[in-house]
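Tutorial sheet, problem 5. The two components below are modelled jointly, 510 residues in total.
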Amino acid sequence: MSYSLREALNAFRRAPLLAALSATMIALSLFVVGLFGLAAYNIKLVISRMEERVEVVAYLRDGAERADVNNAIREMKKWSEVRDVIYVSREQALAKAREEMKEFDDIFSGLESNPLPASLEVVLNPNLKGADVVRNVANRAKLFPFVEEVGFGNDWLDKVFLLRRVAAVATLVLGSAFAVVAALIIGAAIRLAIFSRRDEISIMQLVGATDAFIRRPFLIEGMITGLAGGVIALIGTYTAYNLLGTSLFALEWLPRLWTIGGVVAGGILGTAASSIAVRRHLGEV
Amino acid sequence: MINLQHVFKEYPRTGPVLQDVSFELLKGEFCFLTGHSGAGKSTLMKLIHMGDTPTRGEVRVSGYNSARIKPREISMLRRKIGYVFQDFKLLQNRTAAQNIAFALEVTGARPAVTRTKTGRLLAQVGLASKAEALPSELSGGEQQRIAIARSLAHDPLVLLADEPTGNLDERATTGIFDLIRTINASGTAVLFATHDLELVRRNPGIRVIELDHGSIVYDSAEART
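Model answer (structure tokens):
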């Protein structure tokens, strides 16, 4: 085993509590990022699934002429955002409602007349489904005189987008705050390690060891601490995912690249924090 | 090989420590550096070791100049300079052999080279039988021998000995001095700082530089010319 690795591992033996605290703080910071990342990822999935289902429904006035409606269908099909337009008669609408809401069958049976309007279901192109596109198609459909109202669920779509933004900002702010605390604790741990090895370091400087060689064990120590923190955070996030998944929501687990990225981020954070600490404190020996 | 040109050193709190110091130490030369405590002997050695830079003037050692040397070059230069101290500076939790091996290990020597060379150095300082002893189990003279062995790990061109006999009795002093003379005889230059004037008197053929309040007040090499 190389000198640097051996010395890095010895540091954990000399001050296990501080090493554990450093790793825990990195784990906490990455756990926060992991949780919010899990939320952001699932919100993103929900949005894309919802976007797939988003369609504009134009409800027609009673007495709309079928010929006018057919002309409108032909015109709308020419719009680049539109893949298809389906006419749903009042009878079809009622049948569909009875099919989808069986629990209200008694109410539907007791109806004297059909209250549901005929409508045009506008199916959008999958690659052109942003909130703006949906709004734009809805506004243009509304311009037909026989269209009474257009529904496209804009309110909830905006809210989901907002939720995703909030999750991203919260991840950034909380994750960064914990990362700074983690870096400070690693810095303190490295300073203590330098202090406890000051005799060795001064002999190393005396006999001509390079600065890079002297720094290396501390950088390895920081990297191992960071990677350990990353792994703990991953386990914590996976546990949270399982608990939430079985009790509250059906969640999707994060992509492999995200999880590997999280652990690597821990390693980078640990190495960077110890690098700064070593540069600051090595001169004090 | 060592050349100091009008070297001044001042510290903000203590003021001037060295004032206009110039001298040259030739390859293989032996030189006593004498003077009272606080005369500037240790600071002079520190400057030669590039552990600090002069406030003014230049220190040149084996082709390196204190005004232009880069951090990485300092490490390389130090491998050409052996350095021993009054307080030995041994690692107390390592054996005699490990203390010597440490100097090789941390400068990237291969394990096989480290083992062989450590054995040879222990034999050179007459302590092959004490390889596994901790510093606390050795006498002062023996500890200084281990420190000298460590300083020879990279076959230095010069040995800086900063009061190496300051903590030793007369017998141990003679032993250490003889050892350093032997090292010098094999071609290593030696700058030997001491305030033990008796030791200097017993060796009249050796060059003596005397420092007083940071200035050279006597250099036997110049006195002879």
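Marking note: Chain B has a mean pLDDT of 94. Full credit if you identified this.
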